[in-house]
Amino acid sequence: MREDAMWQRLLSAIVLGIFISDAATAQTVLKLGILGDQSGAYSAIGGQGSVVAAQMAVEDFRPSERGLKVEVVSGDHQNKPEIGVAFARQWFERDGVEAIFDVPSSSVALAVSDVAKEKNKALVVTGAGTADLTGPKCSPNTVHWAYDTVALANGTGSTMVKRGGDTWFFIAADYVFGQTLQRDTTAVVEKNGGKVIGSIKAPFPTADFSSYLQQARDSGARVIGLANSGADTINAVKQAGEQGISSKGQALAALLIYSSDVHTLGTKAAQGLVLTEPFYWDLNDATRAFSDRFAHQFGGKKPTSNQAAVYAGVMHYLRAVEALKSASDGAATVAKMKEMPADDPLFGKGEIRQDGRKIHDMYLFEVKQPSESKGEWDLYKLLSTISGHEAFRPVAEGGCPLVKGQAAKR
Question: Which portions of this protein are annotated as coiled-coil regions (predicted)?
């Protein structure tokens, strides 16, 4: 009996020792989902590059030193809200994902934002543009990073009018992004004394813009505003060049165009385009250093502003999780993100307002002429810097229920 008791005590000690050892080395597993367009019109602005950017952020955060283990999963929403919602529900309900990033396509982002709120998880949108995400559709669980339709309008729209483009014709993608971009740019054009004389909606995606461009030409508008993005913008700009639109006195305004789009077009086709972006790989030493690392991991391609925003958004989210010592309450994590000052090497110093809008500087660029470009990714020249408080809509004007009753402030 004594031997049996001795062996039981010895076995218990061994089991307890193993348990204590495992507990001491155990790490909390945190899953992040990168939900984007992996194969369609927006795949070049995010796609697998957004996954790479997220993984870089995780590596730079060094989670193991903080008692965390972070896993990155990805999904292709195919620019369809129902598929985006299905991914979000599966990730949140069954797969243990605590936060979703990227989400190009405004209709998908709005739908996923509703699911994040319902499940009390975090959503950091970097790829979608509609300013409604921080307006009437704002959520305590959603942060909107990078840019929005108001900032694009305030940058490119106002500049084109000041350059003499006082009459506009819009070719807009026929879904929520194109509609809100046209709406917000129209407001800026009219505020600056311009006039919209016509518009047409193009199905998303569209390969052949010839008939839409012909209608824009026939309107006589001084500016043809492209309220689209990704492959649609590339196709429209190419075909506008083939039709000789710019050489006949009409200006083309690509209201949302990324460096990857300009790289695809080439400076010969895109030269002279004025555009607004929140990030460019060649802005300063910090952006160049990050972009060189990114390109090394992504086939030599420089990051887009969306991919850079995924990196910055993941880093800021992880800092908030570390401060809270938990990621289980999505609204609390987003609240902590708003509370903490945002400061990173890609977007600089900024803040996240109560409506979820990330505030940082925006930049007005012009695409270089071929003779000015010194390499395949040497695409832009900087025209001006627009402060975040000038670029983005004042918080009191957005109609976000989260800020009702607060004093009117930017």
Answer: none
